[in-house]
Amino acid sequence: MSGLRIDYSDLRGLVAEVRGGRGRRLALEVGRVVAFCLAVAVLPFVLLIRRGVVAYSAWDLGTWPSLALAAIATASLLGIYASWACHRLRTGGGPRRLFVRGAFGVALAYVAYTLVFIASANVKSEDVRAEYRAMHPLLRVASSALILVDPESIVTDAGRAPQDYRRMGLTPIEASLHFRQDDGYVHALDLRTEGRSELRNRAIQIAFWALGFHTLRHVGTADHLHVSLSMQG
């Protein structure tokens, strides 16, 4: 009996294979859940900004009708989220209506907030902060969404006048979208790129482009990312 030995190598291999398979399945499931949550969180912002830009630039609906259409679409999406959550939690009709109305309120409150406020930490100077309300509303909404994702973003410039270019040693560009346009708004802003990783700068540029804005990385007085909104027509 003392010479009897049992070979556990095959059993150990089977256990390791099972554990490895379960680990991969668990990782894939966690990845799917994370991707779903990110998509749910990001989709309202994409809908708000992209729908507004398309309505303004492609459909010629005007500034405020475009923003109103985008805000209503976003509020409706949040209402669907709230209704789905209530359904999953099996709440009654009363709480569901309350949550849906609350979702509408949150969407509209967020849009109103982005139109009037930007933190001092996210602008180069108080002069730039004072120019914030001169920017086109869709640019304000987009820059606020950027700050939520990247709180260290800095708006270095928005509205300009011809003398600003001369002061920087540059020739004024008559077609510059940094000037107030016919609709009364500035259609461009500059974002700081110095002191930030190239990966982050490129990701922000791609994000603005995907949302329907024109982007240009160039050097004027300093390296920066220029973001602009096309005029109607």
How would you briefly describe this protein structure?
This protein is of the alpha+beta class.
Structure write-up:
With 233 residues, the protein is an alpha+beta fold. The protein has 2 domains: 10-113, no CATH class; 120-228. It has 7 helices and 4 strands, in the order H-H-H-H-H-E-H-E-H-E-E. It has helices at residues 9-57, 63-89, 93-116, 126-130, 137-149, 162-167, 198-210; strands spanning 155-157, 188-192, 214-219, 223-228. It is globular. It starts with 8 loop residues before the first helix and ends in a 5-residue tail after the last strand.
Strand content: 5-15%
Strands across the major sheet, in which order? 1-2-4-3
Q: Unreliable runs, pLDDT <50, ≥5 residues? A: none
Mean pLDDT level? 85
Number of strands: 4
Number of domains: 2
Q: Quick one: overall form?
A: globular
Helix-strand pattern: HHHHHEHEHEE
What characteristics describe this protein?
four-stranded antiparallel beta sheet, alpha+beta, globular, 7 helices, 233 residues
How are the SSEs placed, and which strands pair?
Elements: H1 9-57, H2 63-89, H3 93-116, H4 126-130, H5 137-149, E1 155-157, H6 162-167, E2 188-192, H7 198-210, E3 214-219, E4 223-228
Helix pairs in contact: 1-2, 1-5, 2-3, 3-5
